[in-house]
Amino acid sequence: MTLKAYLSLMFFLTTICWLTFYFVIWTINPETTNWIGFMLFYTSLFLSLSGLISILGFMLRFIILKHELAFRSVRVAFRQSFLFSFLIITCLFLLSHQLLNWLNLFLLIIGLSMLEFFWISYSSQK
Fold first, then answer.
1. Residue 52: is its pLDDT beyond 90?
2. Rounded CA gap, 52 and 83, in Å?
3. What is the percent of the chain with per-residue pLDDT over 90, rounded to a whole number?
4. Class of residue 64 by CB neighbours under 10 A (exposed 0-12, middle 13-18, buried 19+)
5. Could you tell me the sign of the dihedral formed by the alpha carbons of 94, 100, 102, 107, in that order?
6. CB-based burial of residue 73 (10 Å sphere; 0-12 exposed, 13-18 middle, 19+ buried)?
7. Within 10 Å of residue 21's Cβ, how many Cβ atoms?
8. DSSP type of residue 68
9. Residue 45 — φ and ψ, nearest 5°?
């Protein structure tokens, strides 16, 4: 897959995810919905954020770090967008259940950072 095709497909799918997220926002009442409504909300927001952050992260890497190969930039941007979106969704979920505090946030960031460092060290050993 070429870079242009990847970016076009990613932009198209991210747009669909954002439209799905807006549809969920406007149609689901959080006061009367069950767990399926909340799952649709968090899933559509996660996919939308992952796509958007992945595209923006790749563009920043491609513009700033021109010496890096495009497929490596795509892989790193997607991995980091997945982790950052997971952080945001987890914080929103904990906040909705009134469980978010500084300690939980700190432990979550430390855990995701350790996971990122593991992936970096694993990919550098190959």
1. yes
2. 13
3. 76
4. exposed
5. negative
6. buried
7. 19
8. S
9. -70, -40
Q: What is the mean pLDDT of residues 14-31?
A: 96
Give the per-residue pLDDT at 84. 97
Distance CA 41, CA 33 (A): 11
| pLDDT computed for residue 126 by the predictor | 67
Signed CA dihedral, 56, 93, 26, 28: sign only: positive
* Percentage of residues in the chain having pLDDT higher than 70: 98
Q: How many CB atoms lie within 10 A of CB 97?
A: 8
Measured between alpha carbons, how far is residue 54 from residues 20, 74, 97, 108 in Å? 18, 8, 28, 21
Whose structure tokens read 């190959």?
126
Helix (H, G, I), strand (E, B) or coil at 37: helix
pTM: 0.90
Q: For residue 53, what pLDDT is reported?
A: 97
